[in-house]
UniProtKB/TrEMBL annotation:
Keyword Amino-acid biosynthesis: yes
Residues carrying N6-(pyridoxal phosphate)lysine: K255
Signal peptide residues on this chain, from the entry's feature table: none
Species assigned in the record: Dissoconium aciculare CBS 342.82
UniProt keyword annotations, A-Z: Amino-acid biosynthesis, Aminotransferase, Branched-chain amino acid biosynthesis, Pyridoxal phosphate, Transferase
Enzyme superclass (EC): transferase
InterPro entries the UniProt entry points to: Aminotrans_IV, Aminotrans_IV_CS, Aminotransferase-like, B_amino_transII, BCAT-like_C, BCAT-like_N, BCAT_family
Statement: the UniProt record of this protein carries the keyword Nuclease: no
EC number: 2.6.1.42
Protein name (database record): Branched-chain-amino-acid aminotransferase
């Protein structure tokens, strides 16, 4: 199977199988002398050389084996749940080799991984992940929210760093079995959920830099409480102008662990100055004016929305476009779809467009900035009170005694209503 695939590629550009050596960058560039006829692909379609091969992404769900734990964990009281601190009894795990594709899936007791110190993920960050949730509805059914979106994004992220793709639909079937097995960990109150963390890593034992010849896809899950247990608390942001999270042609649109570690220091710096999160800007020339602007991208680990009234009186809900510098958030997409369906008929303009800090500052100064909020799986929406930018505090439309604006609150209600199955039969909510 794999040898047929390799015939399509220069031999040393194909994946290493078993203990074969991965290619080095020097070998790849010397090869390029002979194979430089095709133009390089656009950055948006960069992917593993064999990413499109369906044989290597196939998952056989019928061979799943389940080994149940003999030491079930105690269920923690709701008020002791801390995000990502406690995990369920089991994990889902699949291994992959370039020779055989995905091997038989397993659900095992939650346990340590055993990795050789030379495993490529530990040296070169061959790792991509997802964040999604399972919810329990009033009738006790367990539900996932748009899991196909997470699978599509994870496949894109994995392929960008030469990790294997996988059949998303088959993986959701396995995920359902895993979640069902550990469903006793999902509290049945609104606001509570099971955070699900799929993770894919390169497992080849090598210090050579090249496409990993083996990989592991595993899922762990952690019960979580509401992000705002005592009601919304609006956050304050520090706009970061001294560091950049992502750039055109980079990997900011991929959910790679390597994107997250470098963001921690600016977040800590913002915290030392009293801000909850930092706001990532990207300085660029505005082609309309020829002037430099600080374009708004995303906030911490959320996408960002701003509701403004234009000078012409037009109400607009806007967020940065998917230009490769922001993550294609599932919540962002959901907010946009609901806004187009339910706010546009009320006269709102819904925009995915570049907007600069200057635009927010002017709107705030002229009393036209209505609301700003972050969007993401963890909190659904997170209202923003103020943004510190160039030595000035930009007030984002909330009154002193107000923690959330009406659009932000409406979005939370709409999205949670679907997640918890209260909006009957909505296609985004997938029963387990
Ligand atoms: C950098 C970044 N942006 C945005 C998001 C929001 O994405 P989603 O709505 O899929 O959770 C996340 C969340 O995981 C993130 O890490």
């Amino acid at each position: 199977m794999a040898s047929a695939l390799r015939t399509a590629l220069p031999r040393s550009l194909s994946r290493a199988t078993t203990t074969a050596r991965p290619i080095t960058l020097a070998a790849a560039s010397s090869l390029r002398r002979h194979y430089s006829i095709a133009p390089p692909p656009p950055a948006t379609t960069l992917q593993a050389p064999d990413a499109a091969d369906p044989r290597l992404s196939k998952i056989n769900t019928s061979t799943l084996t389940i080994t149940k734990t003999t030491t079930p964990k105690a269920i923690l009281p709701h008020n002791e749940l801390v995000f990502g601190r406690n995990f369920t009894d089991h994990m889902l795990l699949l291994e992959w080799t370039a020779a055989d594709g995905w091997l038989d899936p397993r659900i095992t007791p939650y346990q340590n991984l055993s990795l050789d110190p030379a495993t490529c993920v530990l040296h070169y960050a061959f790792e991509a992940f997802e964040g999604m949730k399972a919810y329990k509805d009033r009738a006790g059914n367990v539900r996932l929210f748009r899991p196909d979106k997470n699978m599509a994004r994870m496949n894109k992220s994995a392929a960008r760093i030469a990790l294997p793709r996988f059949d998303g639909e088959a993986f959701i079937e396995l995920l359902k079995k895993f979640v069902k097995l550990d469903e006793r960990f999902i509290p049945s109150e609104r606001g509570y959920s099971l955070y699900i963390r799929p993770n894919i890593i390169g497992t080849q034992r090598t210090l050579g830099v090249g496409p990993p010849g083996s990989a592991m896809l595993y899922v762990i899950a952690s019960p979580v409480g509401p992000y705002y247990p005592t009601g919304f608390k609006a956050i304050s942001l520090e706009a970061t102008t001294y560091a950049v999270r992502a750039w055109p042609g980079g990997v900011g649109a991929s959910k790679l662990g390597a994107n997250y570690a470098p963001c921690v220091v600016p977040q800590v710096q913002a915290a030392t100055r009293g801000f909850h999160q930092n706001l990532w800007l990207f300085e660029d020339i505005d082609p309309a004016t020829g002037k430099k602007e600080d374009f708004v991208t995303e906030v911490g680990t959320m996408n960002l929305f701003a509701a403004v009234v234009g000078r012409d009186g037009q109400k607009e809900l806007m967020t940065a476009p998917l230009d490769g510098t922001i993550l294609d958030g599932v919540t962002r997409d959901s907010v946009l779809a609901l806004a187009r369906e339910r706010l546009a008929p009320q006269g709102w303009k819904i925009s995915e467009r570049r907007f600069a800090m200057r635009e927010l500052v002017e709107a705030a100064d002229e009393g036209r900035l209505l609301e700003v909020f972050g969007s993401g799986t963890a909190a659904v929406v997170s209202p923003v009170r103020a943004i510190s930018y160039q030595g000035k505090l930009v007030e984002c439309g909330l009154k002193a005694d107000q923690e959330v604006g009406p659009i932000t609150l409406q979005m939370k209600d709409w999205i949670e209503g679907i997640q918890y199955g209260e909006e009957e039969g909505h296609p985004w909510s997938v029963k387990v």
